[in-house]
Amino acid sequence: MRSKLQLASGIAVAGTMLTALLGAAGSVAFAEDKVPATVTDVVKTQFISTPVVQQLPTEAQRADAEQAPDAAQMNPRGATLAAHVEAQPAPGALDSEMHCLAGTIYFESRGESLDGQLAVARVVIERTASRRFPDSYCGVVFQRSQFSFVRGKRMPTIRTSSPAWRRAVAVAKIAHEGSWNSPTEGALFFHAAHVSPGWRLKRLARIDNHIFYR
Description:
Blueprint: H1 2-34, H2 59-67, H3 71-74, H4 81-86, H5 96-109, H6 114-128, H7 137-141, H8 163-177, E1 189-192, E2 203-207, E3 210-213
């Protein structure tokens, strides 16, 4: 009887130990499942660059570039205004507008340099483009109290056979066509250098005996 009890007790103890071992193994497996896996960071080489790109011109800039006169074309290197004047064809019959323009050059600046004559002509032309003045050459020239050589809306007699008149006509043609740049482009006013009218205008330049303003 005692032997049976001892055997039963041994079996019970063995069962308890086996259960404990199995339970411990399950706990270890569970714990391993909960341990976070080690993540190895992968370092990648990155190249950061700032591209240097020239910006495209705006529409306004492109329009300005297309409309702006090329000074090298207007006044070619090696050329002179005198040569350009000499290359003009002999003056023929002039319409009233060109006669007014050439007449202004003749009376205002025929004794001055060709640059001075061109500058005077360009003032007349610039005025026709301004809302402050008439829109024709004759309208500008005969506007009241503007040009001292005008008398009763008439010009004095011109010696049309003189070299001075031929030069004035050639300069008028060049100014009208815009084929040569004047040093005073944009000027709307001028006066003789020996007077001081006290104008509050932007002075552009003096050429010979005239001072030009905008």
